[in-house]
């Protein structure tokens, strides 16, 4: 059988292979709670239904970045370019010496024995992506079937959506009856004031649903003002961290899929953390206590 050959998209930006060494020292036991691997495509082929073809980003390169930035552990989230074939992610877990956990993408027909095998390797959640430029969202029943299969394992559901999706699927998201982790604060429009109806709806979602956790990650995806301070994102993330200090996570998002204008420097992203978690106590919860409790307890 021939080895598949993948050619990355012509406008694809490769991840920064020489990031800045961060000046902020993350606390011992810190977790990068949102990152990915891509392939390598010659070993772990990309999905035929993918909407982008990335560069390779291997587990060895992920582990090297983890050590360079000072983190102790990773939570690897299934990349949409791999569809529901989680082989690359599971390979990370198998070679992590217990220092990685995973969030997979599965289909309703997944066998419970396969879910059990994933759990043994360190998977603790499934991801449902509603961002239409990346995937084709499915009917609610599709996701409910998956939830009933993962419920006995105690897994959580990771939701990736944009502001309009929260309004459209409020009832569905609210009545999932499992722990929920929201990627990147639901992607707020940071060109608007914090006190805007869309972000207030997201804050209400968290207030009314104590099982909801959110990642205050990816300022590079949200910002208009840009690196290194990401000043327009800071008020949004700080508001969430300060109101919900026990329900926030943070991650680099390495290797930063689908960045079209500028590839972020992972060291600068780490140095962004103290601007949104402004005290050692908040930093400890964001980077150590919360992710460790969710993924390793």
From TrEMBL:
Assigned keywords, A-Z: Hydrolase
Gene Ontology terms for molecular function: hydrolase activity
A Pfam family reported for this protein in Swiss-Prot or TrEMBL: Amidohydro_2
Stretches assigned to the Amidohydrolase-related domain: 31-295
Keyword Hydrolase: yes
Domain of life: Bacteria
InterPro entries: Amidohydro-rel, Aro_Compnd_Degr_Hydrolases, GLI/LigI, Metal_Hydrolase
Name recorded for this polypeptide: 2-pyrone-4,6-dicarboxylate hydrolase
Organism name: Microbacterium aurum
Upper lineage: Bacteria, Bacillati, Actinomycetota, Actinomycetes, Micrococcales
